[in-house]
Design goal:
81% helix; 0% strand; 140 residues; 7 helices
Length: 140
């Protein structure tokens, strides 16, 4: 952005945007945000990625509530996943708000954390079932 604003002949779109905000004020920011929001609303109606994002969000909600406390156990066992979860979720939310095709970006980003978490959840549930069947700590 700084190089673009310094007068580079090959300014990027974000450099041109920052320069435009500097010249014309904060109203440019609001008009750009409203244009991007309008495009996202249009995409919500017409793209398959909306269904992908809704399905992924439903899977995430289910993982948080069924089976009880499995997500907490996974996060305590795999510390790096907490950071990945927060980072990817923040990137998806940010992309949803600042990208013209934010629905696509958010859905694509959530794929990278949802499926690994789903696989780990099923492994954890398999471990629980094996403990129950063997008379382990849940004992029969």
């Amino acid at each position: 952005i700084a190089i673009d604003m310094a007068g580079s002949s090959q300014a990027s779109h974000i450099g041109r945007f920052a320069s435009d905000v500097g010249k014309n004020g904060i109203n440019v920011l609001f008009s750009t945000a409203s244009r991007k929001l309008a495009m996202n609303i249009k995409l919500i109606k017409y793209t398959i990625w909306t269904k992908v994002l809704i399905c992924l969000l439903m899977i995430i909600l289910i993982m948080f509530f069924r089976p009880v406390k499995i997500i907490n156990r996974i996060f305590s066992r795999y510390k790096y996943l907490t950071g990945a979860w927060v980072g990817i979720s923040a990137a998806g939310i940010m992309g949803l708000f600042v990208n013209d095709s934010g629905i696509v970006m958010a859905a694509t980003a959530m794929i990278y954390i949802c499926y690994p978490m789903l696989m780990i959840c099923t492994d954890e549930m398999d471990d629980d079932i094996n403990l129950i069947q063997s008379g382990g700590i849940y004992g029969v």
